[in-house]
Amino acid sequence: MTTRPDNGAIALFSNDTLSNDDLPSVRDVHWQPLDPAYPRMVLISGAGFWLFAGVVGLALALAGVIPLQPALVLGLWLVLGIPTFLGYPSARVKRYAVREQDLLFHEGLLWKSTTVIPRNRIQHIETENGPLERWFGLVTLKCYGAGGQQADLVIPGLNEALGERLRQHLLDQQADDDAGTEGDDGDA
Questions:
Q1: Among residues 12, 14, 17, 120, which is most buried (max CB within 10 A)?
Q2: Structure pTM?
Q3: Of 120, 167, 115, whose CA–CA distance to 141 is shortest?
Q4: Transmembrane residues, as ranges (predicted)?
């Protein structure tokens, strides 16, 4: 199939089918673990929330605002606490990879997910951290695609220095790509 650019020249366009054997494999990716402090931070964050909720619930029960039934309280703590305590092993299996053309993030204990964002589709990159992350020396890297309101790829639990280096690396690659496309004058 041929297309005719605005300057009247005929450019060849191809969109050949790839065989399944020619596709790159995610199994060959060299995965990087998150910072070892990240799972502890997740556990402390979750346990701190439930401890606070328990103290507030106990205070309301002692004030007579809500009924105090030990079996109900224990049941609620078990049902609501299980996801909190699964946060620790879940945080331990999260990992990321930086490749030449893309960035990958893998997560999940029971429901596994691998997110891949092509480097040339990244429009905006930022790092952020809350008070607990700052205490542990961690940042979250967020990559946004064109036109998106939400981050297309989020990597939590990176060491602060590594997160900034990774952000700068991606920005430098983006600048190199932009410089390369501006230098093309379209004559091929």
A1: 120
A2: 0.75
A3: 167
A4: 42-66, 72-91
